Amino acid sequence: MQINILNQQNSLFNKFVSEIRDTGIQTDPIRFRRNLERMGEIFAYEISKELQYEEKEITTPLGIAQENLPQNNVVMASILRAGLPLHQGLLNYFDRAENAFVSAYRKYTEDGDFDIHIEYISSPSLDDKVIILSDPMLASGGSMELAYKALLHRGTPKHVHMVAIIASQAGVDYIRNMFEGEDVTLWLGAVDAELNAKSYIVPGLGDAGDLAYGGKI
């Protein structure tokens, strides 16, 4: 399993990560969503380097040009609701991709523990396709694992790219152990050391879904 962490190299991506973490900037939900979208575009550009390419002839007004174009059938898959802006950013670049959506939620018990449940899935056939599965936060890794397993009911993909903007080290370790040796690549924006007792990433950024779309009951 390959793991890529974008903020380990200096780029504009780091500026967007800093802004979605910043409590002063987080008060603007439009800017928060737009930053998630822009980071999705950067992830898409980096992932595109890993696809299979084939040379094609392109007719221009003055002749024929040779260009290498991606050949994979791509499916964009997102975990609702926080994943929507990130999904849109990825889709801006993979604009011919098919789309899949998974609804996952935490069901809490009286003592504060929780289980993750898959409530809904909408997906095309995934057989022999490249899947890009995205969720802004990779905390324990449970949601990503369950979403992946739910999607497998729709077919066997050629390769899976998992995308998260902020991850905990515990979540990274969990995904690495779960998918070691499989055709899975993990793309992360930043990795934080701590996962607290409520499975929130520290320092993290808070609840991405609430910051993007408002609080929930």
Describe what you observe in this structure:
Strands 1, 4, 5, 6, 7, 8, 9 and 10 form an 8-stranded mixed sheet that branches. Strands 2-3 form a two-stranded antiparallel sheet. Strands 11-12 form a two-stranded antiparallel ribbon. It has a single domain, classed as Rossmann fold (3-Layer(aba) Sandwich). Helix 5 links the parallel strand 9 and strand 10 (184-192). The chain has helices spanning 12-21, 29-48, 84-93, 142-151, 169-179, 208-213; strands at 2-5, 53-60, 63-70, 74-80, 98-108, 114-122, 130-134, 137-138, 159-168, 184-192, 194-195, 201-202. The mean pLDDT is 93. With 217 residues, it is of the alpha/beta class.
In short:
With 217 residues, this protein is α/β, with parallel strands linked by helices.
